[in-house]
Amino acid sequence: MAKNDATKTIQVKLVKSPIGYEQSQKDTVRALGLRKMHQTVDHTDSAVIRGMINKVRHLVAVTE
Prior knowledge:
By secondary structure, the chain is of the alpha+beta class. It has 2 helices and 3 strands; from the N terminus they run βαβαβ.
């Protein structure tokens, strides 16, 4: 049985505070599940999550 690309996970870490940025970017960080600085969360690698990460790429670090 071959692995599906949807089963891949990525780690997202908040490395910069969203204070001082637009409310939509703050909301995106919260929607990713990031509440505190240097917190890491795991997400499945999907187009939706990649789009959210792209919006706040200056605030987060991604590990595949």
